[in-house]
Design a protein that fits this description.
Blueprint: H1 2-24, E1 29-30, E2 36-37, E3 41-46, E4 51-56, H2 61-90, H3 98-125, E5 134-135, H4 137-158
Antiparallel strand pairs: 1-2, 1-5, 3-4
Helix pairs in contact: 1-2, 1-4, 2-3, 3-4
Amino acid sequence: MSFLLFAVTALHVLILILLFVATLDKSWWVLPDDNTVNIWYDCLFDNNTQAWICQSVSKSDWLYAVQAFMVLSLLFSSAAFIIFMCQLYTMKRGSLFYATGIFQILTAISVFTAAVIYTTHVDEFQKGRQPGGSFGYCFVLAWLSLPLALISGFIYIHLRKKE
């Protein structure tokens, strides 16, 4: 049982790390000249001045929705971790971790919504930039955290506390 608790806790910490990096780092879109764009600020390196030039990203409501759902996923996953730790020490023997599992499933739904919105509206977000480019590693991390959060949520729902 202790190995299972360690594995579930490690999986949850991994999901939190993936979500933090995916939300806060700067590589949701990679431009052809290897500059990257994130969901918060558009920072490009100017070779003439050897400085970073930053401005707010697109004023699209869809991008605001991506930002909101990624922050919401972080909040859900953090709340799930706190609830899990509280349940671990206060719940009676034989009980299930329903609340933790539901919050992890809500995390997966939030990440899925953010990633789908970004996928379908990426052309709108990249207007005014040079054509071409590809999805960056933060986008991939967001998609990677989706199945992990879903699996984690179902594990929590089926996990019973034992002495």
